[in-house]
Amino acid sequence: MDYNIENKGIVCFFQDLMKKRTFFLALSFVAIAFAWIFQVAIIPLGVVAVALLAICIKPTNFILRLVGFLVALGALFISLHKMNLAQSGGFYPGLIFAFVLLYLLLSWFVYNARSSEINDL
Description:
It comes from Campylobacter californiensis. By secondary structure, the chain is an all-alpha fold.
């Protein structure tokens, strides 16, 4: 049974957003803006931007999206650690950005778990 057939709810909304390249481009621009503002974490936030741009190549590819999300989250957690050590004011905006990425990853997993479709690996 496919629970996503009505296309209602927050999980389906974010899944529809994640099918578009412009959404990941906007997220990568946010990461670049954070890197521009908070110089202490410029390298990890640059890795986040590159990982999100890699997802833009083909947003429907499972492996590419999974690797992109995991690399982006790992680099974002490293940048949060660096910002916290430097007592930077960008820790909390970076933390909110990390929660957004984590929520996107979890909503993608929930959408696929609720769906009766088998995604091609």
